[in-house]
Every structure is written in structure tokens, then in C-alpha cells.
Specification:
heterodimer, A: 297 residues, alpha+beta, 74% helix, elongated, B: Rossmann fold, 6-stranded mixed beta sheet, 7 helices, binds adenosine-5'-triphosphate, binds magnesium ion
């Protein structure tokens, strides 16, 4: 099997090459780890914020508090009007009794009992409006605010906009930062492989003289760069997996990330880290090998 | 070689109008003063360089039209030996020879069988596990010759193989090259060693200033008439 021999040869030489200049290779690997840890942090935060965003989107987008003792006929008419507004998905009526029950439930969830001090509390009746398009909340809110039967309108628009703004800033700053770190990593790998190639210059010359094909000359070096990326990715995945245990519940509680999504997230992240590590390793060594080997022949 | 000319990018004309045919099985000396173009002649044969004019055919291949990726196959048909041996200092004799097979993807079983064969051909079976630094110049050159022969080439080219060796060792290397030639390999040897050329009485190609000034069978180092 000539191909198996080629693969074996390349892997062995890449491995030897990696340890031949261990300081340099490990330094390059360390920068890969740095890059991937930053990338993991960014992806975790963005995924969390995105979940939060989706959560807000999925919740009642507009709440309208109704006049006290609004006659049922008026209420039904109002609901029908709201339903015809563009962007509205559904309208639900929450009676004062139901609102009270929800309040009790939320206290219970927090482990307390609602204590009204014996006073009779009457909450507002309200309409909860779900939207098809979160951007419609402005228009729908406007419509409700001008309606006589409505006392007050609460929208999640401001909250939504703030979160969206934060996500965009973090994503942009994060990607620019990681892009810069990525360039540094690429530079490190290009240099590491260049040194590896130069340290084998004598061998390369002999390989050419005895009729070794270009792939036998190139691939060990490319794999050496890939090895830096691979080791970096594996170390980072292990690190993330260790800190993921405490992080996962936080994702679920703080960002309302669905548990199923958070369970899958680590796998997705690992794939991204592997791809990024291998990619930067292969690209760096490829650039290095290409420039050297075409310069010497 | 037909009408071969070689001008280096710096404008230096290293070879001009060279016409040579070397049949299979020949033993040829390539002589000439320093700078005459001997090494350039050899570089054209192994396609380390492409001639600026004319055509070069080796082992049935047109080296001018040859694509880059076909060069490795050509190099396996040609064994090459240099004055400075070019052994890998960190590898033993056996490893240096095996390296040439390793990097061309030869099966391990073939390597295990082929390396001892070659080492006994060049008389180094007892030095298989020595490093180049533990060998004499002659032994290092034998190692290089063994390595050049791993792919059973049809042509062995040697650029001043005795340039760094004392007269006795030089003679031993020549004897080895003669022996290899007798086994059927074409041998081309560039040399300054008058004594050897005169004693051997083989075909001599003489270059001067890039021109082929003499091509004589059973000849001496200098023109004799
Ligand atoms: N790469 C190069 N670029 C430019 N000129 C070169 C190059 N290589 C050789 N030359 C020139 O070409 C001429 C022939 O050189 P070559 O090495 O072929 O001579 P030679 O006969 O092998 O000499 P020697 O006996 O000293 O080894 C010389 O004048 C040399 O300076
Ligand atoms: Mg020379």
C-alpha cells in the first residue's frame, strides 16, 4: 500500500519535526490555545445572549393593561381590533384573578408565600399580545396606547433593542479581537514551520536528488502545522469541558438557554474549535511550505 | 544532448553548442578546467536546470518538455554522487541508504532487503550502524554511492567524487565505479584527476569555456597529439 506508506511516513516525520524544535512548536500550540479559549469565551457569551434574545422574542411582546371593569363586549371588540393589526400573532386575555394567581406562583417559585397582609388586592386585567414580528411591537404599542379602553402599554422593545445592541457590539469586538489573535497565531505557525523546513534543508535537498515526490517533501511539514492546531484544539476542548459543568446551569438560568440546546452546545463548540485549530495550522504551514519550496526550486 | 546551450540568469554562458550522445553501459570521464561547465552539464542531465537552448534526452525522456512533477521519476533512474558526499550526519550508514527508499515510499520489506545488499556491494556491511562522522572519506563516499544505487538506476553520475579523497582511496572508489559499470550501469564522472583518467583509458569528454573541445574513446586527460 504505497498510500498507507506515504501517510505513515508523513505522520512520523511530522511528529519528529514537532519535537525536534519542541520550544517553538509548543509556543505555537500555546498561541493556538489562547486563540481558541478566546473564541470559546466569545461563542459562549454570544450563544447565551442569543438564547436570551430568543427567549424575549418568544415571550409576550406587548402587554396592555385594561380599564377596570371594562364591559365584556368592549373587551371582545378590542381583542378583535388588535388581532387585525399587522404583525400580531395572537391575543390572550388575562383576568385579574389569573394575574393574582400568577403573582402567587412566582412567589412560590422563589420559595416564599405572597403575604397581602390581609388586604384585598385587585390587579389589572390585561391583554397579552404575541407578535409574529418583534419589530411590530412599536406599531402595535402605538395603536393600543391611543385606545380608550387601555390604561397603559408595556412592550419588551426597549429590552430587546438593548440586548440586540449588546450582542452586536460583543460580536463585532470579539470577532475583530479574535481575528487579530488569529493573525498572530498564523504568523507563529508560519514561522515555526519555516524553521522546521530550514532545519531540514539538507534532507530536503537529498530527497529531491533521490527522486522523492513533492508530496513526500511537503506533507510532513503541513501535518506538523496541523499537529500544532490539533493539540491546541484538544487542550482547549478539555479546558472548556472542565469549566462547562458550572457554566451550563448559568446558561440555563441567566440566559434562559433551553437545557437541550445547552447540552448540545459543547459538542457544537468542540467541532468549531477543532475546525478552527486544524484550519489555522494547515493554512499557516501551507503558506510556509509553499513559499519555501517554490523559492528553492 | 543536441545543440545544448546554457546561459545562467546573470548572463554567464556556461555551455554552448554541446552535442553528445552517451550510449547505455558507457563509462565516460568529463574533464576540463575549473569553470569549464562540468557541473552545469551534470545539472542539465538531472534536470536541476533546464537548458536555455537545445534539447536533452535522458533514459528516453525529453528533459526540456518534462513537467515538474515528472522530475522525481527521472531522478530515480539516475544515481548522483558529489564531492562532498551529502550524507545526513544524524543518520547511520544504513539509515542514510534507507532514507532514499523511505522518502520515495518503498515498502519496508523491500528496504530491509535492499539496504544490506547495497552495503555489501560497496563493502560497508560492517559499518552499517556507524555515523558518517565515524567514517573515513572513502567510506562516506561509498555510503553515498550505495544511496545513489538504491533505485537501481540506469545511469550513475558522479561530480568529482574523488575530489576530497587521497590517491589510494580515490583508486578504491574508481574500482567500485568500474564494478558498478560492469554490472550494466552507465557511469559519467566529472573529474580533475589526471592520473586516474590517463590510467583508465576510457571515453573522455573535455569541456573548455562551455564548449565541448574533445570527445574521444579510450583517451587520456590531455590531448595527446
Ligand atoms: N547558478 C549559477 N549562476 C550563475 N553562474 C553560474 C552558476 N553556476 C555556475 N555558474 C558559472 O558557470 C560556469 C560553469 O560552472 P560549472 O560549475 O559548471 O563549472 P565546473 O566545470 O563544474 O567547475 P569546477 O571544476 O570548478 O567544479 C562558471 O563560470 C560558473 O561561475
Ligand atoms: Mg563543478
Amino acid at each position: 500500500m504505497p498510500f498507507a506508506r506515504f501517510i505513515g511516513f508523513s505522520i512520523v516525520r511530522a511528529w519528529q519535526g514537532f519535537w525536534r524544535n519542541a520550544m517553538m512548536s509548543l509556543a505555537a500550540t500555546a498561541t493556538v490555545i489562547l486563540m481558541l479559549v478566546l473564541l470559546s469565551g466569545l461563542l459562549i457569551v454570544i450563544a447565551g445572549l442569543n438564547s436570551g434574545l430568543e427567549f424575549i422574542e418568544s415571550k409576550v411582546a406587548v402587554t396592555a393593561q385594561l380599564q377596570d371593569d371594562l364591559p365584556e363586549a368592549d373587551r371582545i371588540e378590542l381583542i378583535a381590533d388588535v388581532e387585525t393589526q399587522p404583525g400580531v400573532a395572537s391575543v390572550a386575555y388575562v383576568s385579574p384573578e389569573e394575574a393574582m394567581e400568577r403573582l402567587r406562583a412566582s412567589y412560590r417559585e422563589a420559595g416564599e408565600e405572597l403575604d397581602t397582609g390581609g388586604a384585598e388586592i385587585r390587579l389589572f386585567a390585561s391583554l397579552e399580545i404575541n407578535l409574529v414580528d418583534p419589530n411590530a411591537s412599536g406599531d402595535v404599542g402605538e395603536f393600543l396606547a391611543t385606545h380608550d379602553d387601555v390604561v397603559r402599554v408595556l412592550t419588551k422593545q426597549a429590552e430587546y433593542d438593548t440586548l440586540l445592541g449588546i450582542i452586536n457590539v460583543i460580536r463585532t469586538v470579539g470577532l475583530v479581537g479574535i481575528g487579530l489573535v488569529g493573525l498572530t497565531v498564523l504568523f507563529m505557525i508560519i514561522n515555526t514551520i519555516r524553521i522546521a523546513v530550514y532545519s531540514r534543508a539538507g534532507e530536503i535537498e537529498i530527497m529531491r536528488l533521490v527522486g522523492a515526490s513533492d508530496s513526500f517533501i511537503r506533507w510532513p511539514f503541513i501535518l506538523e502545522g496541523v499537529l500544532c492546531g490539533l493539540i491546541g484544539a484538544i487542550v482547549t476542548i478539555v479546558l472548556v469541558a472542565i469549566v462547562w459543568d458550572p457554566i451550563q446551569p448559568a446558561m440555563v438560568t441567566i440566559f434562559q438557554m433551553p437545557t437541550a440546546v445547552s447540552a448540545r452546545f459543547l459538542t457544537t463548540l468542540s467541532v468549531v474549535l477543532l475546525a478552527a485549530g486544524l484550519g489555522v495550522g494547515a493554512l499557516g504551514s501551507w503558506i510556509s511550505v509553499r513559499s519555501y519550496l517554490s523559492a528553492t526550486h | 544532448m543536441v545543440d545544448v546551450g546554457m546561459t545562467y540568469p546573470n548572463g554567464k554562458v556556461a555551455l554552448a553548442d554541446v552535442n553528445v550522445e552517451i550510449p547505455n553501459g558507457d563509462f565516460v570521464f568529463l574533464v576540463g578546467p575549473s569553470g569549464a561547465g562540468k557541473s552545469t552539464f551534470i545539472r542539465l542531465l538531472i534536470r536541476e536546470q533546464v537548458p536555455t537552448t537545445g534539447s536533452v534526452r535522458v533514459a528516453g525522456r525529453d528533459l526540456v518538455r518534462m513537467r515538474r512533477r515528472q522530475v522525481p521519476a527521472l531522478r530515480r533512474r539516475i544515481g548522483i554522487v558529489f564531492q562532498d558526499f551529502r550524507l545526513l550526519p544524524s543518520k547511520t550508514v544504513a539509515e542514510n541508504v534507507a532514507f532514499a527508499l523511505d522518502v520515495t515510499g518503498a515498502p519496508r520489506s523491500h528496504i530491509r532487503q535492499r539496504v544490506p545488499q547495497l552495503l555489501s556491494l560497496v563493502g560497508l556491511q560492517d559499518h552499517a550502524h556507524h555515523l558518517p562522522t565515524q567514517l573515513s572519506g572513502g567510506e562516506q563516499q561509498r555510503t553515498a554511492i550505495a544511496r545513489a544505487l538504491v533505485h537501481a538506476p540506469t545511469i550513475l553520475i558522479a561530480d568529482e567524487p574523488t575530489g576530497n579523497l587521497d590517491p589510494v582511496t580515490s583508486w578504491e572508489i574508481i574500482q567500485l565505479l568500474i564494478q558498478i559499470n560492469e554490472l550494466g550501469t552507465t557511469v559519467l564522472m566529472a573529474t580533475h584527476n589526471q592520473e586516474i583518467v590517463n590510467a583508465m583509458r576510457r571515453r573522455v569528454l573535455a569541456l573548455e569555456g562551455g564548449h565541448l573541445v574533445r570527445d574521444e574513446a579510450a583517451a587520456a586527460y590531455e590531448r595527446e597529439y
